[in-house]
Structures are given as structure tokens and as C-alpha cells.
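Notebook, bench 3.
Goal today: get a predicted structure for AraC family transcriptional regulator from Eisenbergiella massiliensis so we can plan the truncation constructs. The sequence was checked against the plasmid map this morning, with no discrepancies at the termini. Length recorded as 299 residues. Pasting the sequence as submitted so the record is complete.
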Amino acid sequence: MGTIRTRYMSGEDERQYMIGEDYEIYEKRGAPTGATRIHHHDFYEVIYVMEGEFSSLVDNRTYHLKKGDFLLIPRNVMHNYHYVEGKHERSRRIVLWISKGMLERLGDGEMDLEGCFPEGGDCAYHFPLHYEEILRNLLVKAVMTEVPDLNGAEGKRIFDKAQLMLFFLYLNALCAGDSFYFAKEESVHHELVQKVNEYIEAHMSETILLEELAEYVHMSKYYFLRRFKELTGLTVHSYLNNKRLIRACEELKKGIPVGEVWGVCGFMDYSSFLRNFRKEYGMSPTSYRAYLEQGDRQG
């Protein structure tokens, strides 16, 4: 194919949201020094390691990826980059962000292309070389800034959608079985984060005290706070707040009235809910509901 130019995102870029509504795809190199905060988003994320190594904490497990590995991150799951000294400076990877609506349109009502993104299970894969090369070639074509003999931005966008449709068709077929999951030694399970998640999910609508969480995981309060921050990069309070906001988005999608959502998600009052929602998503819950309804009409 010769020298190709790709859409490129600097490792210093802090952006963790899509500018477009459908999908974005980039090549990234080196350690991502700008986007290290634990976060979540309402779109799917695919990371493919082309060269070197890369590590990421997803929910309660840290995955150590090598060349050829894929990481498939579901919507609204807490995750962040996990730095390993001396390992990631030569990393090269393709990062794909894609919305639920876009996957539905690519499937055209005939196939569920979201099935490759796990719910609560492992999300890293290492496929046999033949299949990896097929997936790699489709992603590389989509990340290219231009294609020879293909004129115009619209033509390139249609070409990209075709590559992504084929990519997700292959990916879902490969992920349907459990043959290509990571070996256990290639990832680290964090029981502490899992237990905290379990407790938060079970008591979401209640006031959750730090003392209660520490007792649940059988640690002293101050050791628990320090250890949790070491694993996730977030304070327990910030992590809990993010989990409540994720649940709020889910409830709004179900059609629960905005005036009831704050109580279901455990916020002290509506003003606290509104302030935190605006800070995280840049819009009010009412505007978010309108955004969802607009997307449903367009879909």
C-alpha cells in the first residue's frame, strides 16, 4: 500500500468525547499523557495495538495488551489508561469510537453488531494471525485520510463505513465463541474494585458512607481510601459520583421523569444532581433527554 497518512490524535490530547455523532477513528502513538483520568462515555471504544504494548484498567480488571491485541470497551463502563514504566513509549494503536446508533445503522436491522462488546465479562482478545490481519487491514483503511482514485470527502466516508461494517461483521463472528479471550496471566483482576462496584449497584438509591464501604471490603477506612485511589486514580467519592451519573443516563433513556431520576440514583437533592450532571456532560438532564429523543427520531 506504500506510505499512508492517517488521522492522528496526539498522546497529549485530553479529549474523551466525540465531536461527530457517529464515529471517530485515529492513530495514537506513545503513552497517552493527556487522557489518563478514569472516565466513561456513552459510545463504544475499540483499541487495536499495532506495535509495542499498552495497558488499560476496565471496570475491575487491568489488561496488558501486546501487538495484535484488541480491547473492546462497552458503553458507560469506567476505564482509564494504566501506565507501565518503560513499556509504552513505542506503542502504536488505532482507537475507534462508535455510537450505538451507528452500529445499529451498519447492521441495517439484519445483525446485532453490538454483541462483540461484553456486559460484565472480559473484553480483551488475541485472534489468530490470519483473522487479525483481516481486522487490521479494515481498520487501517478506515483510519487513512485519503484513498487513491477515490475523490471527495463523501466518497471517502462511504468507503470508511463499508470498512467498518465488514470489520464489525468479522469481529462479532470471532467474538461469538470464547476461544480468543485473553489468558488469565495477561490481565489482573482487582477484587477491591469489583466489591465496591457490587455494593454501589446494590445500594445506589441510598446514602453510601465511606465507613460502610470500608467495612464491606474488610479494610480500615484510610487504607481503603488510599488503596482505591492507587488502583483507579479516583477518590471513592468521585468514583461513586460517576457511577450515579451513569445510572442517571440509563434511567433517562428508559423514560424515567427527570424529577425522579436524582432520587433513584442516590443524589441528595435535584440541585446536586443538576450541578454534577452539567459538569460531567456539559448539558442539563432535560437537554440530554431531548438529545436522546432526537437520536431516536433520526434512527
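The chain has two domains: 23-186, 190-298. Residues 53 and 66 are 5 Å apart (CA to CA).
Flagging this for group meeting.
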